[in-house]
Amino acid sequence: MVLSDLIADIHDLEGELTKIERRYGLLSADFYHLYKAGELEQSRDFIEWAGYYEAKLDRQAQYRDTMYEHLRDLRQRAGLGALSLLPESA
Question: CB–CB of 58/73 below 8 Å?
Fold first, then answer.
C-alpha cells in the first residue's frame, strides 16, 4: 500500500472514530483499554468501535514502516544534501 492510500485510510478511520467518541463521550484509546480488559459489554457498537480502532492502529503501523522505507530511499538519493520531499500528484 502506498503512503497516500495509508494516509487516506487513517483519516477515514479517524472520522468514524470521532463520531463514535462524541456519541459515547470517550476517546478511543480509553474505550479500547476498557474493552480489552473486559469491562465493557460486547454490544454491536463496541465491537464495531474496537474494529475501527484496531484497523487505525494497523494502518498507522503500516504507515510508519512504509514511511521509514521512503525516508531511507530519500536519504540515499540525497547523499549529504537536503531531502527532496515532493507533493503527491493529483
Answer: no
Task: Classify residue 90: in a domain, yes or no.
Answer: no
Q: How many domains does the chain have?
A: 1
| Nearest CA among 67, 62, 60 for reference residue 17 | 60
* C-alpha grid cell, residue 11: 483519516
pLDDT digits (tens, 9 = 90+) for 10-41: 999 999 999 999 999 999 999 999 999 999 99
Write out the residue range of the structural domain in which residue 40 sits: 3-78
Residue 85 lies in a domain: no
Cα distance between residue 20 and residue 43, in whole Å: 13
78, three cell numbers: 540525497
